[in-house]
Specification:
By secondary structure, the protein is α/β, with parallel strands linked by helices. The chain contains six helices and 14 strands. It has a single domain, classed as Rossmann fold. It has helices at residues 61-74, 103-116, 129-137, 158-167, 184-191, 212-226; strands at 3-5, 10-11, 15-22, 28-35, 43-48, 76-81, 87-88, 91-92, 122-127, 145-149, 171-176, 197-202, 237-239, 243-244. An eight-stranded mixed beta sheet has the order 3-4-6-5-9-10-11-12, with helices on both faces. β3 (15-22) and β4 (28-35) form a beta hairpin. It starts with a strand and ends with a strand.
Length: 247
């Protein structure tokens, strides 16, 4: 078999299907589920995207690459979806952006989807605005833990952090050294009230995790925490079939 370098637009084998989530307040949200092709998933990532009013959606690049790579590289299922009122090439979810309030129903719908489809060991992964949704609305007994990327802590309050501390589930916090909103030292101080929180500063990274080196670091950290026995770093080459996505 041929060996191919894994580049920015490389898509590795997985079973991918368009899905719909149904919220308790009557909305239909559009998304995609990617799972391994030849084995049951070892765990599940439920991804919550950045702020839709500033360009965030289910195809935000870290999540798109997670869905393209991690089912094949780490046997992970990856659920991506557009929160209410958000549009991507997959389509537009019903409803309207509500600043993180009614989005509580979107988070619940994603967790219910995972439970209904018997997807194992779900972890929430929230990026920027998505991290706020995790902290405010993600404390569901069904989840294993959560990973936050670039949390701004604008909407989530100390009360939410205290509630997560009482919740007791693992919380992994990846904070770019050059973040626009919350940098590692301040993040360590803010998250100190969550005893089980692990704050990881990432040298040279920015809020949007631009560049392959930043994306690889994020994916390695996700896999390393969700699947502690999995070999790291993840490979930079793939033996077998790949395709190249359009930008």
């Amino acid at each position: 078999m041929s060996t191919h370098p894994i580049r920015s637009l490389t898509v590795l084998p997985a079973h991918r299907e368009d899905v719909q989530l149904h919220t308790a307040d009557g909305l239909t949200l559009v998304g995609e589920l990617a799972v391994p092709t030849h084995t049951p998933p070892a765990a599940t990532l439920v991804t919550l995207h950045p702020l839709p009013t500033h360009g965030g959606y289910m195809d935000s690049h870290v999540y798109r690459k997670a869905a393209w790579r991690l089912p094949a590289m780490a046997d992970l299922a990856v659920l991506r979806f557009n929160t209410r009122g958000t549009t991507s090439p997959r389509g537009t979810s019903d409803g309207a952006f509500d600043g993180g309030r009614a989005e509580q129903f979107d988070v619940a719908a994603a967790i219910e989807f995972v439970e209904f489809h018997d997807l194992p060991r779900p972890w929430l992964v929230g990026w920027s605005f998505g991290s706020e949704l995790v902290l405010m609305h993600g404390r569901d007994p069904a989840i294993e833990g959560a990973i936050l990327l670039s949390p701004p802590l604008h909407r989530a309050t100390d009360d939410d952090l205290d509630a997560w501390a009482a919740f007791g589930k693992p919380l992994v916090v990846l904070v770019p050294e050059l973040d626009d909103y919350l940098r590692p030292d301040e993040a360590r101080a803010r998250f100190a009230r969550v005893p089980q929180a692990e704050v990881i500063g990432v040298d040279g990274a920015k809020h949007l995790w631009v560049g392959e080196s930043a994306v690889r670091r994020v994916l390695d950290e996700i896999v390393g925490h969700v699947l502690p026995d999995h070999p790291l770093p993840l490979p930079t080459e793939w033996v077998g079939a790949t395709v190249e996505a359009t930008a």
